[in-house]
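ligand=S-adenosylmethionine
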Amino acid sequence: MSAPAQSGLYIVATPIGNLGDLSRRAEETLKMADLILVEDTRVTGKLLNYIGKKSRMMVYNDHKSATDRESILDAIRCKIVALVSDAGTPLISDPGYKLVRDAQAAGLYVTTIPGPSAAVAALTLSGLPSDRFLFEGFLPSKTKARAEALDELKGLNASLIFYENGSRLGAMLTDALAVLGDRKAAVVREITKRFEECVTGSLGELASRYESEKPKGEIVVVIGPPGAPEAASEEQIEAALREALVRLPASKAAGEVARAFNTDRKTLYDLANRWKGEGSS
Ligand code: SAM
């Protein structure tokens, strides 16, 4: 690799369990850093021990005041400053966003050393559609707020990714079942660690399994997209296409309706063009 010698902010992803997943670039950057911004000095201290380097650490979170961030920006101006979180990719349900925003606004060099993130790792293991997904992070812990958050997601034709913990898992799955319906889902636990597991099933099956079982360790829940709306008739699909054509050109309207009804885009596109031809003749 070309050594990162330039002063700036280096966003460094670290392993989510298995230290073997630390990339060579991540290791070299941490060794070269003048300062490492961390969530917890004990956690990152273990990683630094593993690579045999004692770099200077400073605790960073996005609740730091703008003045504190200013002094960190001063360091970034003339030093190699690495940003890590306890595990995985910084900024993903972890601190860093405000610092990256401010460093970029100040015209400073910002780069990323990509690597593990539990969200993507879980999606790849879940066996659920991976072409479109939405990462939601942690849902609220109170049932009402959680149901509202889920309600906002229910129309999306995408797999949904949530971070969770064992004690809330059963309640979260029960709320998801009530709001989203009985979709396919996966509870992915302890990825890259000794007790890694991926339990798949319908939301109903998983909700009843985890009603009493409170699994240990770190957990990601992946919920599949809604299935084809079985009740949708040809008339309903055509009505949706006519409505979409009021707002959108034929190709986009066909795409939107095809996604919503899980049906063939080309057929809808041809139909839209036929209507157009009939209308103009
Ligand atoms: N920034 C991290 C990332 O990129 O994965 C996520 C940080 S977030 C504070 C921590 C949550 O990520 C955990 O509560 C859990 O939901 C999930 N997580 C982290 N490591 C995991 C693992 N090895 N297996 C399953 N989930 C994990």
